TrEMBL record, chains A, B, C, D, E, F, G, H, I, J, K, L, M, N:
Gene Ontology MF term list: lipid binding; proton-transporting ATP synthase activity, rotational mechanism
Role, per record: Key component of the F(0) channel; it plays a direct role in translocation across the membrane. A homomeric c-ring of between 10-14 subunits forms the central stalk rotor element with the F(1) delta and epsilon subunits.
GO CC field: plasma membrane; proton-transporting ATP synthase complex; proton-transporting two-sector ATPase complex, proton-transporting domain
Domain of life (superkingdom): Bacteria
Reversibly protonated during proton transport (site feature) positions: E65
Primary subcellular site in the record, as a coarse category: membrane
Transmembrane annotation, as ranges: 62-81
Membrane topology: Multi-pass membrane protein
Domain V-ATPase proteolipid subunit C-like: 15-78
Protein name, UniProt field: ATP synthase subunit c
Length: 82, 82, 82, 82, 82, 82, 82, 82, 82, 82, 82, 82, 82, 82
């Protein structure tokens, strides 16, 4: 059999990258949607605070985005560095 | 057996690409739907703020979209670069 | 055994395409349904803003659709390009 | 063993087609149900806007249907073209 | 071993048909139930619009039914044409 | 080994039939329950419209039943025709 | 090995029967519970319509029961006819 | 190997019986709980209708129980008749 | 190999017993909790009907318990009779 | 190979015991939590009925506990008697 | 191969212990959280009944804890006695 | 093959430890979050009872924590004692 | 084969570490989010109690964090000590 | 076979890293979204407390983020240190 150990490692790394990014996009995607939904609702009620609310929304989403970025980093590491 | 190691790697990469994009589309799809739903509701109540709300909706959705794009990037990398 | 490596790759790619499109249709399908549901509700309350709300609904759904299209792209790439 | 590589490919493609269409019908089915439910509710409250609301419902459902159609396309491609 | 490649293909196709129709019946079944539930509620409140609401319900359900029919088509194709 | 290809096919078909009918009964069962629940609620509030509401309930359930029947058809085909 | 093809078929059929009936009991069981719950609520509010509501409940449950019966039929067929 | 075909069949039947009864107890258990919960609520509000409500509860639960009994029947058949 | 067919059967039966009782305890456990929760709520509002409500709760729970007992019976049969 | 049939049986029994008790603790745990939550709420509103409500809570929880005890019994039987 | 039967048994017992305790901690954890949440809410509204409510909370949680303790017992038995 | 039985046992124990602690952290984590959320809400409404509510929160969380600690104990036993 | 027993043990330990930390981050992550959400809500209503509420939030989150830390500890032990 | 033990270990570590980060991003992502959503809502109602609420939001999210960071740490350790 011509399958070397490095092939098994690479196959696991690529499959792992797909799982990491696929699952890792669920949480931030839903979480940021919650933030954006409430921000739209709040701006609809209180439009003169739109700038403040947009800023809050972006800050809140940025933190939630972080775990998505971690997943991206792990996936990229699994693709290129490993 | 004529299966070489590179074949196993490619098979894992292609399966991983499918998993990454498939799972990665769930979170943003639902999250952006929440944003859009609340934006429609808010515009229905406060139509004179439609421009502001549409802009907020698009910004909120764009951030939520990001994890979907990460998934796309990982899937494309798994398809072509790896 | 007459199974070559390219066969294993293609099998994984086709299975991956099915998974990518199948899972990738869940999120946008539900998300766009949320947007459409709220748009109908809002138009029912405020029919004179129907044009504005329909436009907002379509914009919101278009963004949510994007991850579904990403899935379609990945699935098609897995079918024909790989 | 008389199993050739093309048989493995075809088996994966057919299984993938089943998964793609089966999972791909969940999202749009539920999403369109949400739209239709809210449209019925809105027409019950505001029957003189029935034409407008039916049109909005159909547009909203058509967009949500799109990911279901993508799944159908991928499934058909897996069945006949591949 | 007397298992030919065509047998493996057929087995995958039949299993795929079961998965496609089984999963594909969940979404439309639940979605159409939502539409019907809201239609009953609306008719109970506004019985003189029963004809209009029944028509809307049927239209909304018909669109939601479509993905179920796609699943049926794919399952039948997997059974007889493939 | 005395397992012929036709045996593998039949085994897959029978397992597929079980999956198709088992999963296919979830959606319509829940969906029709929603319709029936709302119909009972509506009749309790507006008993003089019981005939109209029962008819609407039955029509709504009949459409939702359709995907269950599709599943039954596919399961029966997998049992007897294949 | 003394395992004949018919044994594999029968094993698959029996496992399939268990899956079909097990999964097939979830949907109707929950759905009929919803109908019964709303019927009790409605009778508690409007006891003089108890006969009408009980009849409606039974009709609504009977339709929801149908997919459970389909599952039973498929399971029995898998046990005795196949 | 001393495993005969009848052993494989019996093993599948016993595993199938466990799955059928295990899954088949979820739906009725939850559904009957809904009925009973609403009946308690209704009796608490309207105690003079307790007899009527208890009867309705029992009828509603009996129908919901039916799918549980189907599961029991299939499991017993898998244990003793097959 | 010293594994006889009866061993495989017994192993499947014991695993099946665990699955049957494990899954079969979820539905009744949750369902009876719903009944008890609503009974406590109702007694808190209407303490002079405590006897009636406790009786109703017990009757409602007893029916819901039935599927749990079926699971117990099947599990015991799998342990001792089979 | 030194694995006898009795070893396979015992391994299956021990795994089955873990599954039975693990899954069997979910339902009663959640269900009893519902009962206790509503009891606390009710006592908070109506403290002079605390004795009555505590008794009702304990009775309701005891019934819900029963399926957990069944799971314990099955698990113990799988551990020691089998 | 130097794997004896007792090794397989022990491996299954240790894996089963992990599953039993892991799954068995979900139900009580969530259920006790519900009780505690409602107790805090009730004390916040009615602080002079804090002693009574804390006692009720502890009793309610203790019963819910029981299934968690059963899981612990089964896991410990799987670790040390078996 | 140089894999001894003790290796298989240790591998199962380590995998079991991961499963036990991973699953066992879900329930208490969510449950304690519920308690903390309601405590914050109650203190926000009734700040002069903050000490009492914090104490109640901690007691309620401590009980919910217990199943998490059981999982920790089982995981540690699987790591070091077994 | 050059795979020694220690390799199998280490592979299981590393996989177990991933599972423990991955699953173990779900519960605390969601639970702490609930606490933080309610704390923001409460501070928005009652800003002069911000210090008290922030402290309560942190205490509540710290307890919920504990199971996440347990998971971290188990994962680290699986990585380095085992 | 040219697969050494170190290859199996590395493959397990890379797959484990993907699972740890993928699952570990779900909880914090959703939890932080809850916090951000409520913060936007609260600021929309009480804009003059925006600084206080943003600070509270960030503190609450930071704690929830911690389990995501633990997952990142474990994943990185699995990639580079192990």
């Amino acid at each position: 059999m011509a399958i070397e150990g490095i092939d098994l490692i690479k196959a696991a790394a690529y499959l792992g990258a797909g799982v990491a990014m696929g699952l890792g996009a669920i949480g931030p995607g839903v979480g940021e949607g919650m933030v954006g939904a409430k921000a739209c609702e709040a701006i609809g009620r209180n439009p003169q605070q739109a700038a403040l609310l947009t800023r809050t929304m972006l800050v809140g989403q940025a933190v939630s985005e972080s775990t998505g970025i971690y997943s991206l980093v792990i996936a990229l590491l699994l693709l290129f560095v490993v």
